[in-house]
Amino acid sequence: MAHAYPDMPYFINPSLAFNDEKKHLAYQQANADLDALLQDETDVILKMVSINCILKTHLPYYYWVGFYCVNEGKLIVGPYQGTLGCLHIEFKKGVCGAVANTKQTMIVPDVHALSQGDEHIACDPNSQSEIVVPVLNQQKELIAVFDVDSSMTNSFNDIDKQYLESIMNRHFSSSPLSQTCLV
C-alpha cells in the first residue's frame, strides 16, 4: 500500500468552515440538485461522480470526497475529487475499512489522534477530520464506502451524517442499479 509523504504536491484548496445553519442550507441545495440530476439515473458510476461534484461544490469544508468500491473483499479507490487517494484498503484497516466491516457511519473529529496505519491510513497529510458512510445496494449488500475529508479538525457532525446517509440510501439502495461500483 502506498502512503502519502509531506513533499508530495498538493493542489487542492484548504477547507472553509461552515456553521450548522450553513450546512443545512448547503445540503438542501445539494439535495435538490442531486434529485433533479439523478432522478432517472441507474448507472452507479454516473451517480458517484455526480454526487462527488455536487457535494464538493456546495460544501467547501470538503477537502477530499469520493468512493472506495468493494472489490474481491477489499476496497479500491473509485470516483473521487481531491488529491491522490489510497489505491487499496483492507476491510478493518483505517476508517474506510472499519466502516466497510461494520456498515456503520463513522465521524472522526481528528484523524491524527488515531493509530496511523491501523485505525487511520494517511493518504494525504493535509486531511484532519473525516466522515465515512457505507453505500448499500437494494439487497443491503455493501458496494462501496463514501469518504469525505476536511483539512480542518471537527468539520463533521450529525448534520453531515444524517444528510449523507440519506443521499446514499436514496441514490443507491432505494433504486435499481445497472451495474456494480466497478466498471
Short description:
By secondary structure, the protein is of the alpha+beta class.
Provide an overview of this structure.
The chain has 183 residues and is an alpha+beta fold. It has a single domain (32-173), classed as 2-Layer Sandwich (Beta-Lactamase). It has helices at 20-38, 44-58, 94-102, 158-173; strands at residues 64-71, 74-81, 88-90, 106-108, 129-136, 142-150. A six-stranded antiparallel β-sheet has the order 3-2-1-6-5-4, sandwiched between helices. Helix 1 (20-38) packs antiparallel against helix 2 (44-58) and helix 1 runs parallel beside helix 4 (158-173). Residues 1-5 have low confidence and may be disordered.
Q: Briefly, what CATH class? A: Alpha Beta
- Per DSSP, the total helix count is 4
Instruction: Tell me the span between the first and last alpha carbons.
Output: 22 Å
What structural category do the secondary elements indicate?
Answer: alpha+beta
From N to C, what is the helix and strand string?
A: HHEEEHEEEH
Number of strands: 6
The major sheet is characterized as: 6 strands, antiparallel
Number of domains: 1
Read across the widest sheet, the strand sequence of neighbours is 3-2-1-6-5-4
- Extract low-pLDDT stretches: 1-5
CATH fold node name: Beta-Lactamase
The helix fraction, in percent, is 25-40%
Overall pLDDT metric: 85
List its traits.
alpha+beta; disordered N terminus; single chain; Beta-Lactamase; six-stranded antiparallel beta sheet; 21% strand
Topology:
Layout: H1 20-38, H2 44-58, E1 64-71, E2 74-81, E3 88-90, H3 94-102, E4 106-108, E5 129-136, E6 142-150, H4 158-173
Antiparallel strand pairs: 1-2, 1-6, 2-3, 4-5, 5-6
